[in-house]
Amino acid sequence: MRLAGQKGFNDRQDIVAKNISLQAGNKIIVQKIVNEQEHIHASFFTDSSFHRLLLYLGIMINRNLQGEYIEERKRASNSKYHMAQDMMKYIVQYCHITTTEDEVQFLSELLARARYLKNKAVQNNVVQIQMITRQFIEKISDELGVNLNDDYDFFESLSNHLASIFSAKEVSYPENSVIDEIVAENQEVVLAVNKRKTIVQSCMKRELAEKDLEYVAVHVCAALERKKNKGIAFHVIVACHAGIGTSRLLLEKLKTHFQFQIVDVVSSHEAKNLEEGKADFVISTIPLEGCKLDYVVVSPMLNDEDYVRVGNKIDALKSSRRLPSRIEEQEITAKGMIERLTPIVWEAVPDQAAVLMKKMRKAIRDYFRQSIEAEAEIFSPYLHHLLSPSHITLDVECRDWREAVKISGEKLMAEGYIEKRYIDAMIRNIEEHGPYVVLSPGFAVPHEGLEAGSIKVGMHLIRLKTPVNFGNEEFDPVEFVCCLSAVDHKTHLKAFFNLVNMLQTGDFKEKLRRCDTPEEASKIIEMYEYEVMG
To answer: Is 447 a catalytic residue?
Structure first.
């Protein structure tokens, strides 16, 4: 979260911002674009420059939507031209505008004049933490007898939490009665986390404290609540004390994780006028004085503690009275339509499904103009985007695991995804930390830290003619080696998450084993990826 700049600047910005009618969804997307480009280009704005840039981009988008473009600019190269190009490319795509080369040139000049932080701490071993997080989720699912492997938010939030405490000698947790209450009521989860803590411990530089484990347990409890209440169709009103953008963001998060029928979205001061019976309860961002309906208070970003709070409210309502059965009206959304059509297309025309679905997804999203639902996919390519036919090599001859890692890495190096030193670093990583990169029987994903020579996000999969051992007694020998190059903690995450879930699908590896060409392998990957995404 950005810190506020100087008061005078903020006051001036607020006055201008109030006169910019940029859609709430676009505001969220533009901020995300800027955030991601900061990481990709390793150029981090000061707070004042960040806010000025957002303000300019809002003005530019509104101007372009009205068909007004900046005057002709003299072409001059500068160090931020490529950053401006990348930023504008995504703004054009996701804010539905057209632009000109002069707009790109002017934006690059603004970026060149902006002020940047001298450095930014980067968690160099985030991919290692994410892989260990994924293994922990698999084991905790077995321990609790509940499949939590398909909960992307659980995976993302827990890996981010572990990354935040990875290098800390000791974490000072604030007093929190909600956490204490959750832990007291979910001792079986706490015991399961303790039983499987050695998986997480393997990537830590210190012993996990009791409080560390309790916070991990809260993440698990939140995932359990999401799964348990996924199919419950309560009638809910959303009350928010902030603007429409915050309300929409909270609404989309709720709809993602709960099958609520959202009957109304109101400002918090209107809640006292709500009549009994209009909804089962209210979800609010602040306490509601004089509200006649039950309500639960959550943060606008809907964190793990909030999921547990909402789940507890649902449990209390179910226990207190018999709710009427309902036949819910289902809201038609771009995401829902795509999910319904995808398996039909794959079954009807498997040879043309990939191309057809790409065109259909664009047409459906353009028709619905539901940019908020598409937001999570903007900078998170799917696995099949990274493993196109040119990034798959079949029947490679290797003498041992080192040579397999080397060959897989050299394919990425040849296309400019990594530097040569990245390959040596991957091998050293396995020598020092063991074969944790073997994620499933016969399948390894070697990688290294963010500052070890990765240039851009990429993968290259090789299928070995003769499997080799990595030293993992449970999963050796390894037949598939997929080198991963990551540039930040986020961009590769959706592809990696989908890959791990696909590896749990019974015949996925068997289909890869039997295919004859990289093109066939790529189609198999895309088909199974859409299956695991539901």
So the answer is: yes
- Structural domain includes residue 250: yes
- Whether residue 195 is found in the same domain as residue 223: yes
* Angle, CA of 324, 327 and 331, to the nearest 5°: 125
How do strand 392-396 and strand 438-440 relate by DSSP bridges? unpaired
pLDDT at 358: 72
DSSP-assigned letters across all residues of 393-414: EEEE--SSHHHHHHHHHHHHHH
Residue 93 in any domain: the answer is yes
* pLDDT band, very low/low/confident/very high, at 144 (cuts 50, 70, 90): very high
351: pLDDT strictly greater than 70? no
Q: In which domain, by residue range, is 311 found?
A: 235-320
Q: Active site residue: 161, 447, 460, 489, which one? A: 447
Q: Which residue has the higher pLDDT, 97 or 150?
A: 150
Tokens of 411: 């394919």
Residues 94 and 136 in one domain: no
| Helices 24-40 and 244-257, packing angle to 10 deg | 80
> pLDDT: is 226 or 470 the higher one?
470
- HSE (CB half, 13 Å, CA atoms) of 447? 31
Residue 212 belongs to a domain with what CATH number?
Answer: 1.10.1790.10
- From residue 170, give the alpha-carbon distance in Å to each of 158, 166, 173, 297, 438: 18, 10, 9, 30, 30
What's the rounded Cα separation, in Å, for the pair 161 and 173?
A: 13
Token pair, residue 174, equals: 């604030």
| Residue after which a domain boundary falls, among 91, 113, 135 | 113
Q: In the chain, pLDDT over 90 holds for what percent of residues? A: 28
CA angle centred on 519, ends 518 and 522, rounded to 5°: 85
Residue-wise pLDDT tens digits, 473-510? 999 999 999 999 988 777 888 899 999 999 988 799 99
Give the predicted TM-score (pTM) of the model.
Answer: 0.64
Same domain, 164 and 260: no
Q: Is position 76 within any domain?
A: yes
List, edge to edge, every strand of the sheet that includes 438-440: 392-396, 458-468, 478-485, 443-444, 438-440
Which residue, 203, 228, 253, sits at the end of a domain?
228
Inside any domain, residue 2: no
Structurally, the chain folds into a number of domains equal to 5
